[in-house]
């Protein structure tokens, strides 16, 4: 660091990392003192606030201040302070009951403190991981959120995850082991907990431990997780998380892990995850679309594996790009394209990041990459070469060239000599073409990306700079008024190159110096063209301006403003022009200036469009060299204006002379220059202002106001005066300065030498003189007018206001902010809440008049006068609103302007940055811009402003305007009002009562406009403060009830749609933004300990609290908690009062109930009165209210739930087995006791009570948790079967209602109505309601509900059945803790009920019953539900009641068993035995269901690492049995037709028919399991393959029967499966065998299978040489097949495999085909002699055709380029054009395809052929036979 050495002395500490741009500000010397004072204040006050336990407002206020401090100064504090801040915030964030909005605020600050992890090492800081885990568990996996007891914002998940990422490097050494102990027991692959465990591990596991701790880090889990990943084949949801974890691990530990054995698998899976389409008729596996890998992480993983001794990764990467390159061609498009583009853009970016880390980054405590594994130059070159081809294709992609341009920018930093030439090759022709503008925009945006690498040349690419001038000259025609996008990209292109290069003519040096290199001499002579270029560019601009003049482009009637496009062109034009002039030498500048001056003076422009553009150009010229230019322009303009205004009549003209207006406009723009250069002309300028400021013509005085505004700004603001790319400019003699050395040179941060304009005393005097002369008289006039002493017309008032406004915005930073006393009593705090004053370069002069105060006094008086006397003068009111908001906020720059400048700065920085070297090596102009932005940021920082009386008055005025009569006035005033609300501390509390005043129903005098205005003020704007929903009890207690009561106001009318919409928006916004507000604000002791340390670290000790203060603080904290609870209850009661008012319109009642439902909490039970009201709402007339009540009552029941006692058990004691030695997952001796065992069911009271029930299904599968909890025996649990007297008041209310028959009657009636026909589903909210009832009151309500249930079940209507299903599910789940007697009675009743239900099941209701049973079985011990399972397994497929009932019973059964996963092997075996005889079912719906059920039966049979063989059914046994039955089909030769009649004929059918029926069911099973199981049983499926090949049809025809369609689908799904390396030979064997089959359909299908299989397992195949040869042999074999279709398919397959580089076109293959081509055919004569067999192709013809097909396949395998072997093959092919069919056909097709694919780039492809070859080729492609 250039300034790094002397910082500790200046500051008194060594700063961690400060924002360096602060050191370059003109007032930098004052900042250190300022920041030190602020930091001491923050440390003292933050520590004090925490010690006084005042979370709000104290801690919150000072943590915000710390956030602002970081934004202003960076991490400008010592390491010790940094650690203290982090520790304090960590403790604050993890306070258990902290309100969620505070937690998010603290978390965001903590993230920014930890963001730069190199600043704090593990030695400096350690953070525990468990508090974070507990917080995530509490919030992300909240048990009560779905019941509406907690409201979290949507952003909370992202914030928490980022927080964990930030803390992760600092977890202690033993964290990994503890995490594995915590989460491994959750890893049961059939359960949702697997997803949870893996995502926790991905988020928390630390991977950046130093090498000596690896044994405590990733070594503990690496092998286990990697083998798990390798053995999972069907992309379950959690696989993506594992990949993210591996990517991070690899990236943090480059060189410490050997990934080589896994590389083929990694690349195969990444390729599969791109979801590319292969082959013609592919069925995608549904779930793979959603669960593909995140490209960002995949790229990080690839990048981290590169380098090192073995080059396998680069080889695979090249293979990957070879296989997908053709997808990048612009003619291909699909939903996969975005992924491919992202891959292209991210890879180079990651490689650059890695190179930067290895070569340029400052070393820190993080583990460096070992020398042996760093990327070498050769590695980089190989990488760039492998990716270039896809990038060049992607340049013209349909989705735009942005990704390609970003990729090229990074690639050019690494290897310009490989990257830039091909881009230029595409650019030059694109600049010439007129017909393809897209080509031009695409190539130019790519050249802009590589501009810096091109211009700086460097050792790799010295000839780069020579291309610059030709490119610039050729780009000029792009400045084209008719093509907007072309115009903009050309401006950007020219501006980019001019910023990088000084436009100085150095051609004279050729004579003077002889020590120049060849390239330098070439550049010197080229620079002579610069002047020419600048002049031509100006001509183009002038033409553009003339064609966009107003008269040209619009009719008279249209708008006079600029259109959006015009303003963009204006911006592009002026910024490009100003860049060019900044970079010019003096000589060129003079010529240009002359030219602009003549153009501006010799024409008269209209002032709206073309005038603005010309004035901009002139301003740009004047800014570059103010002295010379002003000499030229200013006197000229002044003279013309004076001359034209000599006559006083001009003052009163309505329309002014065009020339006068144009000269005024020109003058007002050219005064936007360095203020001190204007001082010599001040008399002239003042005289002009006197003449023009009081024109009657609005256009005239507006331009004059602009002039005044610009004069004030130029003299009072601080800004840089030049942005040249080299400090000091270019006008040095060439003898001692050589400009070419500065081409593309970055700015040097430490020698920027910015020239600042800082206002001098003389300029200040001039500014005050202007204000005294022009502002004061206007204010006096307005003052008299508003006292009624002076008559003024509206136009005059507006003119006065316009002058006032321009004076204010011109001198914003000169005038001190408004003073006055603070508004107290809004909040009480024991900590000081002072505002921070920042110095922004000007010491305010308090001896002079503060015009801000004066304006505010006059304006308030005027405003009240206008509102009382002429409220319809809206234009004046608009101006007043503008002036008020500027009086409050404006200090020299506007927030929105700053934001857009910051945005464009970031864009330019990104498009030109050098990520490889880093270290802020940006061009000088950008760095200066950034320093200027830093200065503006300081002027705009108005955080935590004190709320003073002055502000209070103005805000009240704004509120009055916001509720005035005119809509537009209200709208503008509201925007200003919202901005101010966000600026002043606690002002909302002062204003809410005033806004609510308008909604009071008692008031008679409120108009509808005021009512609407007040509602809008409550609603707030997008992203700003919303008064209706502040996270604070005191505010909500006022606003919510007021909104509901306003329904009774006179001004409220539901006839007005705008008002109805407003209430809807308000309710919607409150529901969307409400977050649970805290009731408990206590601060734990841990925080206080750190706060004490922090306070001692602050140098000011005056703030240490007294013991009395501390005692008071504890008392206050208690009071605050009590007060919060009181407010909460008050709010609920007030809402109830409001909702129950008579005559309240229904809409408001609904909104009120909605508000009540938001107030449920999990730490405080709802007041009794509200419970009573909500329970009654269950039977409300309105459906929407009933729905809300159902959810709310379910939540109340959760609040009233009594806690059940748990106890710890030892699973090894229960099972009587010792703990296993090695790790074993799945069915082990020590978890057998959890399984369902029908011989040992708890069906007596003793058995039930002695049985240890484990409800959660995942426990015990993987390993046992450290502390295994189960429910304690019944005698320790809360009492069951209580009488009414034993209940609490709240419970009694619910009890009374549900024991009231009438109430229940009505409720059930309502619940069995249908809501939306055909759309209704099983409703989980209603289920929760019933579950809660039966859980809290056990069977108290059963007698009343029983008869209803029996009635509902007997009725087969959809809605009644659904209602029954919801209640039954609630009953079963609610009976979890009932005693045995009660449960037994319940099941006796339920079994009968369910039997009835299942026999009455219909199409509409079967899914509801399925959901019902699945919900009942979820997280329940199967032994508890044995009645249910025995019932369901009685006769799953009986055939009684028809096929439909069978299918439904199976569906319901499947729902129940699937929830039980691995714990019911016995039931699965029983079910399989039932089903096996029934597999030959005739009915399709039953077959499909059986297929699905089989999937679940075999799901548990997985081959994951360390898994014991399962007790559940095994696939292999089952397949063995099936194959025996399918034998008749295997042996048969003829094609299998589906000739089974759908209804069962009499008598036994033959074996064959039975086999066909069986086959259909098996196909359904294979299809169902493709997307669901984890591992594919490849070995088993292989045995079925030959049969599938036989059945599958060849053509795509939809009216094939079911069997054939299914066979085809199965083949498609199987071919996409992921193969493990051991499985590859097995598959190839089956394929070889099938290729010998007698059916050509089978041989044909083998080929389509190969295409997909090889592509989806590409690198696994390539890795194994034998399998590559096997595939090659198979295809060559089939190319000589006797069936024409098979030969053609084989050729297509070959071409595809060549294209993805699986096979290569080597000499051997070429020779093989050429030999086949030469096969002699029998003479034609012989064939014609009437032989019968002349239709059968002879063997020779087949061979010859095979050869031709081979050549054709090679040609078609490179559709987008011409490899060296191509011309010769085309010649070989042409010989066969006249061969007999089918050869002739093949040749023609090939040639026409070749022509189609190479047509686009024929010009460059032509180069590959010799002249003779071209003649033959032209002949072929246009020969007569082509059209024959």
- Separation, N- and C-terminal Cα atoms: 78 Å
Radius of gyration using CA atoms only: 41 Å
- With strands numbered from the N-terminus, the spatial order across the biggest sheet is 1-2
Multimer state: single chain
Number of helices: 82
Share of helix among residues? 55-70%
How are the SSEs ordered, and which strands pair?
Layout: H1 7-11, E1 17-18, H2 31-51, H3 55-73, E2 74-75, H4 79-93, H5 100-114, H6 130-140, H7 156-167, H8 175-183, H9 192-204, H10 222-231, H11 239-252, H12 263-273, H13 286-290, H14 295-305, H15 312-324, H16 337-359, H17 377-394, H18 402-414, H19 416-432, H20 437-456, H21 468-475, H22 484-500, H23 509-512, H24 518-526, H25 530-547, H26 550-553, H27 564-582, H28 586-602, H29 610-624, H30 626-644, H31 658-670, H32 675-678, H33 682-692, H34 698-716, E3 719-720, E4 756-757, H35 761-786, H36 794-810, H37 851-869, H38 874-889, H39 895-912, H40 924-940, H41 949-962, H42 967-981, H43 987-997, H44 1008-1019, H45 1033-1045, H46 1057-1073, H47 1085-1097, H48 1107-1139, H49 1146-1158, H50 1168-1177, H51 1183-1199, E5 1206-1209, H52 1211-1215, H53 1245-1250, E6 1268-1271, H54 1289-1298, H55 1301-1311, H56 1324-1336, H57 1342-1354, H58 1358-1374, H59 1380-1399, H60 1406-1417, H61 1426-1432, H62 1442-1460, H63 1465-1475, H64 1484-1498, H65 1515-1525, H66 1527-1531, H67 1551-1570, H68 1578-1591, H69 1602-1615, H70 1623-1635, H71 1640-1656, H72 1658-1662, H73 1665-1679, H74 1684-1699, ...
Antiparallel strand pairs: 1-2, 3-4, 5-6
Helix pairs in contact: 2-3, 2-47, 3-5, 4-5, 4-47, 5-7, 6-7, 9-11, 11-14, 12-15, 14-16, 15-17, 16-17, 16-18, 17-18, 17-19, 18-19, 18-20, 19-20, 20-22, 22-27, 25-28, 27-29, 28-29, 29-30, 29-31, 30-31, 30-33, 31-34, 34-35, 34-36, 35-36, 35-37, 36-38, 37-38, 38-42, 39-40, 41-42, 41-43, 42-44, ...
Keywords: Cytoplasm, DNA damage, DNA repair, Nucleus, Proteasome, Repeat
Subunit structure: Homodimer. Interacts with the 20S and 26S proteasomes.
Pfam families: HEAT_PSME4, HEAT_PSME4_mid, PSME4_C
